[in-house]
Amino acid sequence: MDYVLEIKNLIVDYGVVRAIKGIDMKIPKGQIVTVLGANGAGKTTTLRTISGMVKAASGEILIEGHDIKNKEPYTIAHLGISQSPEGRLIMTGLTTEENLAIGAYQLKSRAQIKRNYDQVYELFPVLAERRRQQANTLSGGEQQMLAIGRALMMNPRLLLLDEPSLGLAPLIVNNIFKAIKKIASEGMTILMVEQNARQSLLIADYAYVMELGKIKSQGESQVLIADENLISAYLGKKKS
User: Fold this and answer.
1) Inter-axis angle of helices 140-152 and 110-123, nearest 10
2) Which pLDDT value is given to residue 235?
3) DSSP letters of 180-226?
4) CB 152 within 8 A of CB 137
5) What is the CA radius of gyration of the chain?
6) What is the arithmetic mean of pLDDT over 160-186?
7) How far apart are CA 230 and CA 233, in angstroms?
8) pTM over 0.90
């Protein structure tokens, strides 16, 4: 199988605290892989270490065979890894279109940038309607769409999504996950961290479950969503 990303025995420390305790992951090309777990499990730390925002103590982070562990974030971005961060972190003083332009900063072709705008606006039509609007006036769901759109503007080979449904109403969550599924259907490789385990498993191909910095379980999403223990621990017990 062709893997875009491989993580081997990754260890990350915050001072004297070992946050990530020797995890292994493989992200196949063109698939959605989700990482599930409670707060403090190490999910966001894993993504931030991949993108260079957090330094690893040891292990390997391989992008198509090349180790990118502890490289600078801008170097990792240039290698085609783009992240939509937890909390969105959009530039509130800029317009929607100006925020999207930030995502395309490393592209040189105006024609390519225009195509990327068109693709984002086709995926999220409301952003086209709000293109001249200040980003701080967008709703929470629109800001999340903007964060994902900004990450897509650079034509990444790997898209990292950190809690894309966080704090959103159920209807908006459904729309966000439909958009993520559509992105993947067009060939994008996605690694997604989520607390919304049920929605994640419905659209993902494969899942890892983290607990206290370790991989507790993993498998195909269709298998994990039928696991009664997982249902009880992360999805809530079924009503009798």
Assistant:
1) 150
2) 57
3) HHHHHHTT-EEEEEES-HHHHHHH-SEEEEEETTEEEEEEEHHHHTT
4) no
5) 18
6) 92
7) 5
8) yes
For residue 33, the model assigns a pLDDT of: 98
CATH 3.40.50.300, applies to 3-235: yes
CB within 8 Å of 184: residues ≥ 6 apart = 30, 31, 32, 190, 203
Q: What is the mean pLDDT of residues 110-136?
A: 94
Rounded distance, CA 162 to CA 76, Å?
17
Contacts of 116 (CB under 8 A, 6+ apart): 104, 107, 152, 153, 154, 155
Half-sphere exposure (Cβ direction) of 23: Cα atoms closer than 13 Å: 32
pLDDT digits (tens, 9 = 90+) for 15-66: 999 999 999 999 999 999 999 988 889 999 999 999 999 999 999 999 988 8
